[in-house]
Structure formats: C-alpha cells, structure tokens
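QUALITY CONTROL LOG
STEP: pairwise intake check
CHECKER ROLE: data steward
CRITERIA: each record must contain a sequence immediately followed by its structure tokens, with no blank fields

ENTRY 1 OF 2
RESULT FIELD BELOW
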Amino acid sequence: MSRATSPTPRWWLTAAALTSATLMLTGCLSNNPEAVGDDDTSTADAAPAGANSEPGEDVVIGFSGPAAGHGWMGAITQAAQEQGDQFDDVELRVSEGTDDVNLQISQVEQFINDGVDAIVVLPFDGAALTEVAIEAMEAGIPVVNVDREFSSEFAARTTILGDNYGMGVSAGNYICERLGDDPDAVVAEVAGIDSLPLTQDRSRGFSDALAECDLEVSHRVDGDFTVQGGESATANLLQAAPEIDALWNHDDDQGVGVLAAIENANRDELFMVGGAGSANMMREIQDPDSVVEATVIYPSTQAADGIRLARLLAQGRGMDDLVQVEVPREIQLYAPVVTSDNVEDYLPHAFES
C-alpha cells in the first residue's frame, strides 16, 4: 500500500493565514470589551517586557483538570506538572483529576479561597465551570481556560485551544490526496462523543475538506472516546459497510478499539487515519503491515502552555517574542498530519494510549 503525505491545499493555507492574523488581533483585546479605550494608557505601559525565562516574582498557580483515565488526558496533566517544576518561581498546586463537575467547581473555589495568583482549568464541562471561573476573575485571579471553552468570555483572561475543525480538515486533506481521483471511494468516520462541540467541529472540518475533492462520508458512528466504545462502534460500522477505502478515527485512545475491530473482522482493504497523535498509533504508522497510514496531532501540551501563560499573567509580564506586550486573549494550536515521512520527528514527543 503506497503512502503519501498530503500537501496543504491553497484554500486551507489562506484560512490558516487568516486565523493567524485573527489570533494576533484577538491577543490585543482586553478581557472586558467595554474597558477598551476607557483611558489613554498605552499597552506599552500595561505589562513589562523581558525574557520570559528569567526568574520573576514567586507565584502560586492552581491547576484543575478531568480524571486521567484517558491517555491524552493523562499526558495533559503530566505535561502541566512537568512545566510547573521547570520554574523556581512557581508553586504549582494540582487538584486531583475528576469527572465530577461539582467536585471540580469546589476545587476552583478552594483555589479562590486560598488566594492563588492564577488558575489553569481544563474543565470537564466548560459551561458548568463558567460561573466559578467568573468568580475567580472577579476576585482578581487570572484564569487560563484550556481545551474546553467556558460559555462566557468573561470567565477567562486567556484561552488555549486545540484546532478541532483543523483536525478534521487535515484528515480530510490527507484522504483527498489519496483518493481524490476516485469519485466512488467509500469513506468512513468513527467520531468521539457526538454531543460535544469539539466532536461536531472535527466532523464539520472533515466533511468540508472531503467536499473539496467531491468525496463525502458514507458511513459514520461515534465511539465515545473509549477503547470499548471504539471497538463496538467500529464492529457495527464494518458489518454495515462491506467495502471501505478510508476510515478516519477521531481519537487514538479510542483507536485501540477501532484497530481491534478491524483486525477481528480481517479487513485490510482500507487505510486508517488517526487523531490526537499517540505513540502507539505512530508505531502503527511505522509498521508496513498496518492499515494505519497517518494520524492528526491534537497537542497534549495545552495545559503546559497554560501554566507558562498563567505564570506570566500572575507576574504582570508579557510575551518577549511578540511585539504586542500583553499575553494573547486566545491561542489555537496547529493540527499537523503525521505520516511515515515525518513520524520520527513526532514520536519522541507522543503520549502513550
């Protein structure tokens, strides 16, 4: 089976350029839109510049995230802890990971009561954590929102996101490069949890990219982001689709079950593209006998980046590699495709499923 690296279509390059420009613009916005222009203070006076690696004022940062029962989520927390350990001027307080919304709310409330200098939150449910995040902001504690957005822009000073729509686009681009000359190609999709906006964004990006080469998703199931769910959903999909040319699986942890179902069904006519960028899926890419040809990165460094930015916010510093002196309002990370051509570059930094 031949393997090809998907070149990025011109329309996506244009979109990426526009997104970058938008991020630079949103980085200049105040947390409170009504406050912009209220006085004549220049942004140059708002936050001192300086090398971000230089020690600053000692600060305490609280971190709360979901339970690490998922390889990607475990990597998120580990990277955050390691990042905190790198700074002598940071005391990082990590709450026990939980999928209990009420418990996570109480964790953030405890950080507020303790008077920490900044809070980094990857919410189990962004909407449910919005109110307590607003409380922190109103108490003068900058909040960095990671991955799952709050439902109010007033709940966070800075938000760090993966590019869910871009993941779908990257997966679709790769499949278009492989199958774009076959209008009858059968494309399947194993999504995560359909009720989540991030899943909806991934599917929308995938569909939009396939449309560029006149392909569409013929068969689609959701696997609930678990190994068991991925295996069960894929088994059902394979029974319904006797022939498949390409399959995109949204999540590499879930992909362990997806691969098991493919192997149990003795299906080798298809190729598979993964999502998130786990080490085991990258090793599959290295195996010439595997159906896995690629995976799309969804960075597990988001909370670690959140710790870095929370430190700067708590210390009243900006980012020394930007002309704009303030920490940006929003940062969205890129979703590159990993294939046999570049897997050696990404594997050392991948998480284990």
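ENTRY 2 OF 2
RESULT FIELD BELOW
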Amino acid sequence: MPVNSETLTLLAVGLPTLVAVVTAAALLVRRGRPGSPGGSESSETSEAPTRPESGQGAGAGQQPTAGPGAAGDVTGPVPAERTVDVATPEPDVAVEELSRVVPLDVPAPVQGRMARLRDRLARSGSPLGARLLTVLSRDHLGEDDWDELEETLLLADIGAGPAAELIDALRTQARVHGLSDPAQVRSLLRAQLLALVDPALDRSLATVPTLAEDGTQVPAVVLVVGVNGTGKTTTVGKLARVLVAEGRTVVLGAADTFRAAAADQLQTWGSRVGVPTVRADRDGADPAAVAFDAVRAGTQDGVDVVLVDTAGRLQNKAGLMDELGKITRVLTRQAPLSEVLLVLDATTGQNGLNQARVFGEVAGVTGIVLTKLDGTAKGGIVVAVQRQLGVPVKLVGLGEGPDDLAPFDPEAFVDGLLRE
C-alpha cells in the first residue's frame, strides 16, 4: 500500500501515545502482584480501604478512599497476615471471666469480736479510763483534782448526771478505804464505770421468727434508722453478716429510695454473703411500699429476719420524720416490729443525744448501734445515750472492716477503757 504523507503524520502522532498506554497498563499489573519488584512496600503494609459487605455495592456517588497503594489493595489478594487475624480472633476474656463462679464471703465468727475493741481502745491514745487512773493515783486528792476528774468525764460525753454520780462514789470510797493502792484504785474505778454502763440491761437482738394465727412463719422485722453520715446503710450490711455468721437467713429491704447509691450499696453487701435485696425499680419510690414488699418477700421465703434500711433523716425535718412513722405503720400491718435500731456516730457527742430523743419519740427505738466507737476518748456516750432513751447499746462499730460490728459487751468495753 502506498504510504502518503498523511499516513506518516498519523503514525508519528499516534505511535508514542499507544506506547505510553501500554507501558502504564504494564506498571499497573506489576503493582497489583504481591512481592513484585514494581509494588511499593507501603502498598502491602498499609491498612486496606473499607470494602462493602458481601452482596452490597458502594452507594451512589460513594468512592472507596484511595491512599498509597490503594489500587493494589482493591484489586490484589488480601495479605496472608490479615486473613489470619480475621479468621482466628482472640478469645473473649470478658466472657471467660463472667463464666467463673464468684465464691461467697464467709463472715467471721461473732464471738471474740469485742476483744478487738479492747485493743483498739487501749491504742486510741489516753482513753477515758487512763486519764481517770492518772488523777486517782496521785498521793493527795484536792478539790482541783476532783474538778479535773469531773471535767474529764464531761469531755468524754458521759453527761452531767452520770459524771456527778461517779465523782460522789469515788469520793466516798476515798474517805472510807483510801486510794493509795494502785490495784485497789483500778478495781474501784472498774466497778463504778461498769455500774454506769449497766450490765443488767438486755442487749440481745430479737431476731427469732414468730408464728401467725394461721400457722405461717413471720420473720423478725428489724427497722434501722438514723441521720445521714452515721454509716447506717453500711451498718445494715454488716448486721446481715453478723446474722449469717449465726446461721440466720436474711432478706434486706432497701427503703432508702432518695439516695441514688443506697440501694446499690446495700445490694452489694447482701450479694457478698448470699442475701437477697428487695429494692424499688426507680429512685424516689415510696419507701413504705419497699419496706412492705421486703417483709412480704421474707414471709413467702420463710426467712428468719428482714432488715429494712431507711433514708437518713435530720431530726428537725418534720416531714421526713412523719414518713418514718408511715413506714412503721405500714410494716406492722404484716408483722410486728421486732427491733428499731438507731445508728449513732460515737463522735457526735451531745448532738447524737438530741437525735436519739427525737427518733425515740417517733419510731420507738429499742436499741442503739454506736459506730466509730474505736479510737475515740468519748466512750462516755455509751452511758449518756442509755440514760437519755432508757434503751441499751446493743451493737458497736469497731472499725472499717466488713466484720467490724460486734454485740456490745459492757465488761469488755470497760476493760478496754482501763487497759494500759
């Protein structure tokens, strides 16, 4: 075929373009092959762009995000190490942890707990008994010494009446027998302090279920009251541990529905020893209804004791105190109240006595629980609160541990005050 000038011109223009196209295609093919010299290192190690799931294409107007080596990642095979990661994921550690059975706590035996209080009172730094012995051991006791003794008793929150009684008794003994023998002084002071604490008071807890007229077992119902900050909810949880340690079955009632964390806190205490908690499904629910449901659940399950926690109430808020009276009335429709325990902070002094009086009038308190009694020189609060209410201290808090709650033992308490 004759080649004219127009044909030569077309070949001169089109041939370089064709060569460029073929060369570019070859480079693209080589970059798509893993390990080929033409493929860059970053194209194999960089994160692959997101691929649409099986059966789905990219949406209209959506394009895969392209980065360095994106063409190779889209068209070439997925690197081997990624395939392994997707095919064999790591085991779910959280599922394995949840499948383990968490053992229940075994509460410490109740016997012997007061021995720890004796030790802590002795280490609290100049407790009441040590100060009294220091003054009484002087060679000659003048009026200034007797005034110092009375001041020591008042600072220990023993109250004016009991303090005067103790000073009068010590003066009489000093005139009759003298106070020269240290052992005699200690014995005399022990006897007088023990008389003030009154070991004759019944300090047992009424936690024995009773039988209704139809023969149904009715659990003992223990209502726990007190102001905020005294450790009331914690005391309920610790008391549950005391009862479990004594072989009793327990249900907890979270009737403190105004403090958001109260029900959670109580449920945590109960779960540690296998004790169920009856609680409201929302904050601010009627506390009387929760208390009622707790007693009903305890009756249906045939448990020994129902412990009902209530909201912390200030004694000067009449509305809240009226509500406490409502809880008491509602509970007694199902079962009689076996105990109403008032939780007091041993360090609050005379303010605690004011609380005790008001709660006694509203709720009919039958016993006192003194928290934070360890490590304080204000042991006289035991005497004062018993005189104010005419009810005994039944339980004392010994510390922050879960089993640091013990039945009050008057002799062990006095010995702790006098121990050097």
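INTAKE CHECK: passed for both entries
DESCRIPTIVE NOTE, ENTRY 2: The two ends are 130 Å apart (CA to CA).
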